[in-house]
Amino acid sequence: MAATRRIAVSTVIAAVCAVPLAGCGTGADGFDEESQDPKKAEPAPKNVVRLIGDGSTAYTGAQPHLPEPERLEPGEKPPQFVVFSWDGAGEDSQKLFSHFRKVAKENDATMTYFLSGVYMLPEEKRDLYRPPQHSPGRSDIGFNDVEGIAATVEQLRLAWLEGNEIGTHFNGHFCGPDGGVGEWSVAEWKDEIAQAKSFVKAWRTHTGMKNEAPLPFDYDKELIGARTPCLEGQENFMEAARELGFRYDTSGVNNQVWPERKQGLWDLSLQLVPFPGHSFEQLAMDYNFMVNQSGTETQGDPAKHGRWGDEMRDGLLAGFERAYDGNRAPLIIGNHFESWNGGTYMRAVEEVVKEVCAKSDVRCVSFRQLVDWLDVQDPKTLAKLRTLTVGEAPKQGWKSFLSGAPAPAPKGVPGAPAARG
Known about the structure:
Elements: E1 50-52, E2 57-59, E3 80-87, H1 96-106, E4 112-115, H2 146-161, E5 165-168, H3 186-201, H4 203-207, H5 219-222, E6 225-226, H6 234-243, E7 248-249, E8 253-254, E9 261-262, E10 265-267, E11 270-273, E12 282-283, H7 286-294, H8 305-327, E13 331-336, H9 340-356, E14 362-365, H10 367-375, H11 379-385, H12 398-401
Parallel strand pairs: 3-4, 3-13, 3-14, 4-5, 6-7, 7-10, 8-11
Antiparallel strand pairs: 1-2, 9-10, 11-12
Helix pairs in contact: 3-6, 7-9, 8-9
């Protein structure tokens, strides 16, 4: 997974709000003008709004649009979950964050946005970041500017009000040897997480935007999961995350099977899916498709862009179909707000969202919603689901497989009804 490109772009025009706790163009009752549509997220009543710290974040009550998880009934077929997630999530001149918020709403989906903390810190305050094993002010993905931070805050606010999850992609995105995250201790991971939180909780102070509306959540409570840079450092991160009360990690690589807990966290690793035209499977992430198509060139042969995007789209759809028609394991997909190879992977992801999220019995959800559902299931049911291999549907049907009763004996064996000629 490559470092996310720096999002501090001067052409991002951020709306600066004059009314505390209200977004641009609103009266005193809303966060922003989009929330005036009754079909869209409504903020909590003002009497439950409590500013936290410098007012960068606020407690506003329960998050809107979170469904109540339900336990499967005996013999009930599980839904097909699909999680679309975004590493480094920030709004820049490409406006991909706002675009995919719209795509999600139009397709009855929620997503997880893994925010990089340094995208909430202006360049001139870079020395406030003290990365483990690196000098102060160092970041492999840069920092932001005030306009970029304002634009990102607006998208984070709206995303949360629409039921999406805000996770973390940490800060400086250090990979490989010489101080990369794979070499960090548990204590260093805890320090990195604390700094990522601090930048989110103090963006007003760091930018001077005292009148901008707060993020409508308590980040200490909102933050329950993450994906590490380059999928490195998972073991020590998971130990730190467990001690800090996280609920899941998605930094590993796995096949399309039902998840289990590891080190006290749900292991929601990225998955291998078919790679059309190739003899091997591919990780369900845009960067990995790109590397196996154009190598280290992020803008390869334009004549091949269309085909490369189609390969990613068709690979993700093939992975979806074998789960949907097979073991119903949740499909985990990772992406970046990038225009690699002409934006072909963004097109591919959007086409997958539109293709799968409207299907019967499919739930396109955030990681938070997925772990909420997993947590209320009977552990014996989940253990049974984990016995199914990639693409394997229960041979005698879901009703028998999850009924909790012994499966009926096949016809023609002792104890079975006599077969009719």
